[in-house]
Design a protein that fits this description.
heterodimer; A: about 425 residues; alpha/beta; OB fold (Dihydrolipoamide Acetyltransferase, E2P); Rossmann fold; 5-stranded mixed beta barrel; 5-stranded parallel sheet; 10 helices; B: about 70 residues; mainly alpha; Helix Hairpins; 2 helices; about 90% helix; rod-shaped
Chain lengths: ~425, ~70
C-alpha cells in the first residue's frame, strides 16, 4: 500500500473553500480516487470480452461487458508477461473472469489492470484448453516416447478418486477377485479444491508409496463442466512427474481432457480401467496355464524321445550282434562248403580212379579170358594139327632111308626102302610103283 | 537331475559307439559278444535313469497341480 499522497512531507494541504469544504485539484482528485480503489485491492470481475485492441503484440486493451445482459462496461488493460500468458483468452465474445487491480488513468479513464484472466464461459474454457494443449504439446507432454508402459504384472494399485463417487463403486465392482491391493487416496474431483487435492495425491504416492505398480485417476460421470478440473496444467505436471505409470478413467466418452492426453494410458470410464486391469490379470493367468501345459508336454515329449532313442539303440545293438553271429556262421559254412568241395574233389578223383581201376580190371579180365580163349583155340588148332591126330585119322608119315619125311614121289626111286609110321607102329616097305 | 541327465547322455553315446564297432566287417564273435554284453548293460542303465527321471517328473507335476487346486479353492 503506497504512502498516501496527502501524507507526503512536501505536500501542501488542499484548499478549503468558503463552505469549509476541501477543493481538490484534478491531480489530487485522481490520487483520491486511486487511493480509494486501491483499498479494493485485487478484484475478480466476470464479463464478456469486447473491442480488443492489441498493440504490437505486447499489450492489449479491451472492454469487459457485463455478461448478465446489463448495460455496463469496464475497461481493461494487460501488459508484459501476464499479457503473453493469457493473451489467448483476450478474444472478442469470450466470457472470462478478469483478475486485477483498478487504476484511474491520467486521462480519467478507469481500467482494470489485469494480472490474470480465467476462463468462465464454454468458449473461454475451450480457448484455454486449446492454449494449454498447445503449450504442453510443445513441451512434449503428449509424446508417446515419454509415456511409460503399464507393467504386465500389476499387484498394487494406487487409486485417486472421490470416496463418495460413483466412479469408485464402478471400479471396485469390475476389478474382480484376483487379490489386487488397492490403496485409495480420497480427493475432490469437482470444485476449486479438486486440482490441489489431485496434485497432492500424485505427490503423496510418489513420495510415500513408490512401490505402487500403477496409479489410477478416475471419476464417474459428469458433463463437460466437471471435466474442466482435469484440464489443469498442474495436474498434467504431476502426472508427467510421477515415476509410477498413470491410467486415467475420467468418465467422459467423447471428450478427452489434458490429463487424459498426458496419462500413460487412457480409458474412457472407471469401469473400463477396472476391466482392463482385470483382463490383464486373467490373460496372465491363462498364459501361465498355457506355459505350464506346454512345459509338461515338452518334458513328457523329451522323456518319450529318450525312451525311443534308448529302444532304438537297443535294437541296433541286438541287430548288429545278430549280424556278427550270422556273418561268422556264414564264414564257417562257406569254409565248410569249400572244405566239402575240396574233399569232394578228392573223393571224386578217388572215385574216378576206382572206376578206372574197375574198368581196368575188367579189361584185364577180358584180356585174360580172351587170351585163354585164344590159347585154347590155338591149342585146339594145334591139336588138330598134331600129326598124331592125323595119324589117328589114318594118315601115315613116310620117311626115306635118311629119315626125311616124303612129300613127293620125286623124293623116291623104285625099290627104295621107306619107313612108314602108322598111328600105331611102324613098318618098312619097298617102292614098287610110282605115279603122280 | 542334471547330473543324471549327463550320465544318460554319456551312456547313450557309448552305446552308439558300440553299435558302430559291431557294424564293422570281420568282427570276431567273442569280441563282439563282449561288446554286446557291455551294450546290454548300458541299455539297462539308460532305462533305469529314464524311469527315475520320469518318476520325479510325475511327482513334481502332482505336487504342483495339488497346489493349484488348493489355490482355486
Amino acid at each position: 500500500m503506497q504512502e498516501s499522497f496527502f501524507d507526503q512531507p512536501q505536500y501542501k494541504q488542499p484548499e478549503v473553500d468558503a463552505e469549509k469544504e476541501m477543493v481538490y485539484s484534478v491531480e489530487e482528485c485522481h490520487f483520491l480516487v486511486n487511493e480509494a480503489v486501491s483499498h479494493l485491492g485485487r478484484i475478480k470481475v466476470r464479463g464478456e470480452v469486447n473491442d480488443v485492441r492489441s498493440v504490437r503484440a505486447q499489450m492489449a486493451f479491451f472492454d469487459l461487458k457485463d455478461s448478465d445482459g446489463k448495460d455496463f462496461v469496464m475497461k481493461c488493460a494487460m501488459f508484459g508477461w501476464q499479457f503473453k500468458k493469457f493473451q489467448h483468452l483476450i478474444e472478442n465474445g469470450l466470457e472470462v473472469v478478469v483478475i486485477g487491480k483498478l487504476r484511474l488513468y491520467k486521462n480519467g479513464s478507469l481500467s482494470i489492470v489485469a494480472e490474470e484472466i480465467q476462463p468462465y464461459g464454454e468458449g473461454a474454457w475451450q480457448k484455454a484448453f486449446e492454449a494449454l494443449k498447445k503449450k504442453l504439446g510443445a513441451k512434449g507432454y503428449f509424446d508417446e516416447s515419454r509415456k511409460r508402459a503399464i507393467p504386465q504384472i500389476v499387484q498394487r494399485i494406487g487409486l485417486i478418486t472421490s470416496e463418495e463417487g460413483q466412479g469408485l463403486h464402478d471400479f471396485e465392482m469390475n476389478l474382480g477377485n484376483y487379490g489386487f491391493q488397492v490403496l485409495l487416496y480420497g480427493v475432490w474431483v469437482e470444485g476449486d479444491r479438486a486440482e490441489a487435492s489431485i496434485v497432492k495425491a500424485f505427490q503423496w504416492f510418489n513420495k510415500n508409496r513408490p512401490d505402487m505398480d500403477v496409479l489410477v485417476l478416475i471419476r464417474g460421470g459428469g458433463g463437460f463442466e466437471n471435466l474442466k478440473v482435469f484440464n489443469s496444467e498442474k495436474i498434467a505436471e504431476a502426472i508427467v512427474a510421477s515415476r509410477v505409470p498413470v491410467i486415467t478413467g475420467i468418465g467422459h466418452e467423447k471428450d478427452e481432457s489434458i490429463a487424459d492426453y498426458v496419462a500413460d494410458k487412457r480409458l474412457s470410464t472407471p469401469t473400463a480401467v477396472a476391466v482392463f486391469l482385470r483382463t490383464q490379470r486373467e490373460d496372465l493367468m491363462r498364459t501361465v496355464d498355457m506355459l505350464w501345459e506346454n512345459m509338461k508336454e515338452k518334458v513328457e515329449g523329451l522323456i518319450e524321445e529318450q525312451r525311443l532313442s534308448i529302444h532304438s539303440h537297443a535294437r541296433e545293438l541286438q541287430v548288429s550282434m545278430e549280424r556278427v553271429v550270422e556273418a561268422n556262421r556264414f564264414s564257417i559254412s562257406q569254409m565248410a562248403e569249400k572244405l566239402h568241395r575240396g574233399f569232394g574233389k578228392v573223393f571224386e578223383s578217388f572215385g574216378n580212379l576206382r572206376q578206372r581201376l574197375i574198368g581196368l580190371r575188367y579189361d584185364y579180365e577180358k584180356y585174360v579170358y580172351t587170351s585163354i580163349a585164344n590159347v585154347e583155340k590155338a591149342a585146339s588148332v594145334l591139336s588138330s594139327l598134331n600129326p598124331e591126330n592125323v595119324l589117328q585119322r589114318g594118315y601115315s608119315i613116310t620117311h626115306n632111308a635118311q629119315g626125311k619125311i616124303l612129300k613127293s614121289v620125286d623124293q623116291i626111286q623104285l625099290n627104295d626102302e621107306v619107313a612108314v609110321r602108322l598111328w600105331k607102329g611102324k613098318f618098312s616097305s619097298r617102292v614098287m610103283r610110282k605115279t603122280l | 537331475m542334471v547330473q543324471q541327465k549327463q550320465n544318460l547322455q554319456e551312456a547313450l553315446k557309448k552305446l552308439e559307439q558300440l553299435v558302430k564297432e559291431l557294424e564293422q566287417k570281420d568282427v570276431d564273435v567273442e569280441a563282439g559278444l563282449a561288446k554286446f554284453k557291455e551294450g546290454v548293460g548300458l541299455v539297462k542303465f539308460c532305462q533305469g535313469q529314464l524311469k527315475e527321471a520320469e518318476n520325479e517328473f510325475k511327482k513334481l507335476k502332482a505336487e504342483l497341480e495339488e497346489e493349484s487346486e488348493e489355490v482355486a479353492k
